[in-house]
Amino acid sequence: MTIQIKKKLEDEIRILEYELKNDLPKELKKAAALGDLSENAEYQTAKQRQEIVNAKLAHLRRRLAEVALINFDKLPTDKASYGSTVVLYDVQKGTEITYKLVSVEESDHQKGLISTTSPIGKGLLNHQVGDAVRITTPGGVKEFEILKLITIHDQPETAE
User: pTM of the entire structure?
Assistant: First the structure.
């Protein structure tokens, strides 16, 4: 799982580094050739893009370092944590819902993949089967009962 995240982050970094080292210098040179830089919209736009790319690169490099530090052996075997699949009973709706706790990069709410940093993801962390959980979300307070928990240790290895 972290191999996929790592590859995605590395690919994004590579694309942004290429833009920073190749595309943006060409744009800046072309815009500078137009004259007065203080009133040169093309130059200002390219400089702003350069700042945005540098900030995004710094963020992606930090995330890559964080992902590299995940120690799967230290993840709990009996409580919800990164990589866990959690089957919940939604008390208000009277329905079951299944979520998999993943990283920000992997999250896709439509597919039931929720980030461990989202309100529901955070609220489920370190809980176990049978726990009743009240979670404050932007849409209001949600109440769940944990019916089933499959931790990352219980899931079959996937080829990465």
Answer: 0.62
